[in-house]
Design goal:
CATH superfamily of the domain at 5-167 in chain B: P-loop containing nucleotide triphosphate hydrolases
Helix content of chain A: 10-25%
Order of helices and strands of chain A: EEHEEEHE
Radius of gyration of chain A: 11 Å
Shape of chain A: globular
Largest sheet of chain B: 7 strands, mixed
Strand content of chain B: 5-15%
Number of helices of chain A: 2
Structural class of chain B: alpha/beta
Number of strands of chain B: 12
CATH architecture of the domain at 5-167 in chain B: 3-Layer(aba) Sandwich
Helix content of chain B: 55-70%
Structural class of chain A: alpha+beta
Radius of gyration of chain B: 30 Å
CATH topology of chain A: SH3 type barrels
Strand content of chain A: 35-45%
Largest interface: A-B, 30 and 38 residues
Number of strands of chain A: 6
Number of domains of chain A: 1
Distance between the termini of chain A: 9 Å
Oligomer: heterodimer
CATH class of chain A: Mainly Beta
Largest sheet of chain A: 6 strands, antiparallel
CATH class of the domain at 5-167 in chain B: Alpha Beta
Shape of chain B: elongated
């Protein structure tokens, strides 16, 4: 399966989180439920696909493109 | 009972903590700042049935005890420092029962701090609607702490909570610390060295390497640093591992005790709402429609209560003026204190309306969507999605608007938002704009329907907004604060509003405004009253003598005489002297010394400009007739010349001046308080003043 960054997913697509490459924002993301191994779905996108809103661990979370960029995921078919 | 029980309310954001706080304490709450920092501290008081008093503190919502913002630092400070004045006897942990995965992570941290804790499973109705089944009895015995199912918005479960508090709570026997990964640390040694009560406190202290090392214990710092080096302790790595470990434990627990029976229709409704409200076109249209409604309320509906307040204050002034013994105290009280008080009270309706809507948007979960939609746009100007609300609030009053910047975590964005918010056209500018626009803009229509004056007024609001974001952009370029910014924001579940919460928000904001800005406005009003009522004694004696003789000769009637006397006195008062002193400075903008006086008196609040003008031009009566004032202003000439003062050039220049200059002591004071430094308050005052001066100068010379 292909590993891409979360920012490349379109609205409605789901994936499994592999790892978070940015050490600094990773703690905040983990707190909010973005854990490696969890399923993540892109739910909403503002114009220019930035920020996007993802569903993970039962929460709806808004992130900027940069932050989504640091989350590596495995796309689910 | 003697000592009050100290209880702290803690939980993730959006778990209904405030609802529970409001249910427990009602209006019996106090808002203050935590000492030294600008994080709001809400404390309240209530009594248990057995008479024991409870001192309840509401903590800002946080996801873990690893603080990343000022707000989150507070719960960390309070809960990990046994010497803190707010260190609780008991913690009430409020969890969203439909979202236990994330909520319980913070709970495990609190349990590791060995604090007695009650777990409140809030929003049970929602978790049931979402098909969750929680085995509360077994979870209770597993965690070894009391668990109260609750619907705080409906006050269900509050009585059980109170009973449990009264019974007393033991510390949970569970531990969740991962002491093995990434590196084992001799926590017991550390604990003893730092005189802390438990290992997790020690670990947290190591990880933050600051906190309770007060003056007395400064010498621990090297020991901590040594320990960090010896054990290769990287706080970031450690926090990450710790959180992952806790999540794993929580997942195990939830697998045992919580089951989701079915996929709910609830979720589909939420998603549908989001598709509409955050739609790439429709979402913005809805937001602008809501904005329009808010403006309608603030500027049109609020007019009635404002008028009522104005007339009752001036009636009171009038009555007291005639019924209190005549003399200086009478004048100090009626013209100084009461007019200052009136200047404060008159803003209450607008602020109440504004925060009613903001409270409503926040309580329903819509506000986070606004931040989501606006973030990209605002980011280009050095702001972020959360700056939208302070900027909108700025159209009512900059003081509560600046207070509303507190939830912006990113320091630079928050600072820029604070600095530019006063450029938004606040309601105190409105009377000034209306007077000045009426002076030179003809009362005609464009295309038959649009009033020209209305258009110019709208242009002033637009100017305020454009100058605010333009300045934000300039600050973004020059401000040298390197702090990594993230905008990770939870979009909470939509809920029907809880009116009780909304009203309490309105009440708190109005109270904050009255006490924050009010104190300053009244004090400045008294100072200005002094400056405007007293002058160099010799001149005043002359005026008194002159008017005494006029009174005897009876060439003017009583009210004409009174108006002329007040005008003469103001012109020769200290304020008059000041106005004349600054004349050379403001002459290039087209202003005479009378405008100078009005600019000075405007520092109490900008709308004072109108009253000052009325006094200067000797308009009679308690409530000056604006059309008479306009006539007098139209006929006014510069001193010793036959050139008219209020030409289009001067008036537009004055409009621009009032749009840009920071003539508001309350804003200066609140900026100082919120940034905790005079540097930013001064910078704000100077940049707005410079902008005002240059823009007015250019406009005057172009139009002249």
């Amino acid at each position: 399966m292909k590993i891409v960054s979360l920012s490349e997913l379109r609205v409605g697509e789901s994936a499994i989180i592999e790892e978070i490459t940015d050490q600094w924002s990773s703690i905040k993301l983990i707190e909010m439920g973005c854990l490696p191994g969890e399923k993540v779905t892109v739910k909403l996108a503002a114009p220019f696909h930035d920020p996007i809103a993802i569903e993970v661990c039962g929460n709806l979370i808004s992130l900027r493109k940069d932050e989504a960029h640091s989350i590596l995921v495995k796309i689910l078919p | 009972m003697s000592e009050k029980l100290k209880i702290t309310l803690i939980g993730n954001p959006n778990t209904g903590k405030s609802s529970l706080f409001n249910a427990l304490t009602g209006l019996n709450q106090r808002i203050a700042n935590f000492p030294g920092i600008t994080v709001e501290k809400t404390t309240g008081y209530f009594q248990l049935p057995n008479g024991q008093g409870v001192h309840l503190t509401d903590m800002p919502g946080t996801y873990s005890l690893y603080p990343k913002s000022k707000d989150e630092a507070v719960p960390f400070e309070v809960l990990t420092n046994p010497h803190h004045t707010l260190y609780p006897h008991l913690v009430i942990f409020v969890a969203d029962s439909a979202n236990l995965k994330r909520n319980l992570v913070l709970l495990t941290q609190i349990i590791d701090l060995r604090l007695p804790v009650i777990l409140v499973l809030n929003m049970m109705d929602q978790s049931m609607a979402q098909g969750y089944e929680i085995n509360i009895e077994e979870l209770k015995s597993y965690l070894g702490i009391p668990i109260i199912p609750m619907n705080a918005r409906k006050k269900e479960g509050v009585i059980e909570l109170i009973k449990t508090i009264e019974k007393g709570v033991d510390v949970s026997p569970c531990t969740f610390i991962n002491t093995e990964k990434p590196a084992p640390i001799p926590l017991d040694t550390l604990k003893e060295q730092l005189h802390l009560c438990n290992s997790y406190q020690a670990l947290l202290s190591l990880q933050q390497s600051i906190v309770h090392i007060d003056e007395k214990h400064q010498y621990f710092r090297p020991a901590l640093d040594d320990m960090k080096a010896n054990y290769n302790f990287d706080p970031g790595v450690w926090q990450r591992e710790d959180l992952l470990f806790r999540y794993k434990r929580v997942f195990e627990i939830l697998k045992q005790f919580v089951h989701q029976k079915y996929e709910p229709a609830f979720k589909r409704r939420q998603e549908k709402l989001d598709k509409i409200l955050t739609h790439k076109i429709g979402g913005y249209l809805i937001f602008f429609a809501i904005l329009f409604l808010i403006f309608q309320a603030v500027f049109s509906w609020a007019e009635y209560p404002m008028h009522l307040i104005e007339t009752s204050v001036s009636a009171t002034q009038h009555w007291l003026h005639h019924h209190l013994p005549k003399g200086i105290l009478n004048e100090l009280f009626t013209d100084g204190v009461l007019s200052g008080l009136g200047g404060v009270l008159v803003f209450i309706p607008q602020i109440a309306f504004l925060f009613f809507f903001i409270g409503l948007m926040e309580d329903t979960g819509y506000l986070a969507r606004v931040a989501f939609m606006m973030d990209k746009l605002m980011r280009g100007f050095g702001l972020n999605g959360k700056s939208v609300i302070p900027l909108i609030s700025g159209t009512a009053c900059a003081v509560p608007a600046i207070l509303a910047t507190r939830n912006i975590e990113h320091k630079k964005s928050r600072l820029i938002t604070i600095l530019v918010t006063p450029l938004m056209s606040c309601s105190a500018r409105l009377p000034v704009y209306i007077l000045l626009i009426g002076l030179v803009i003809p009362d005609s229509n464009i295309l038959g329907i649009l009033s020209l004056r209305g258009l110019v007024l709208m242009g002033m609001y637009l100017l305020g907004f454009l100058s605010a974001i333009g300045s934000a952009w300039v600050f973004k370029l020059f401000m040298n604060i390197k702090e990594k910014q993230y905008f990770i924001l939870e979009l909470p579940v939509y809920r029907t509003p809880n009116w009780n919460n909304v009203w309490i928000t309105v009440f708190k904001k109005v109270k904050t405004f009255v006490f924050q800005a009010g104190k300053i406005i009244v004090a400045i009003a008294i100072l200005l009253w002094f400056l405007a009522s007293f002058g160099p004694p010799k001149k005043f004696e002359k005026i008194n003598a002159h008017f005494d003789s006029l009174r005897v000769s009876k060439t003017m009637n009583e009210s004409q005489l009174d108006a002329a006397f007040r005008s003469e006195k103001l012109q020769n008062s200290y304020a008059g002297v000041l106005g004349k002193t600054i004349q050379p400075v403001i002459k290039p903008l087209g202003y005479d010394w009378k405008i100078g006086i009005a600019i000075i008196t405007s520092f109490a609040a900008r709308e004072v400009f109108v009253g000052t003008m009325a006094t200067l031009y000797g308009i009679e009566g308690e409530e000056p007739d604006i059309s008479k004032l306009k006539d007098s202003m139209r006929n006014a000439h510069y001193e010793n010349s036959n050139v008219k003062v209020y030409t289009t050039a001067t008036v537009i220049s004055l409009l621009i001046f009032y749009a840009f200059a920071l003539q508001c002591m309350s804003t200066i004071a609140v900026t100082y308080r919120e940034t905790a430094s005079w540097k930013w308050a001064l910078l704000q005052f100077t940049f707005m003043g410079t902008l005002a001066y240059l823009a007015s100068f250019i406009v005057f010379h172009i139009l002249k």
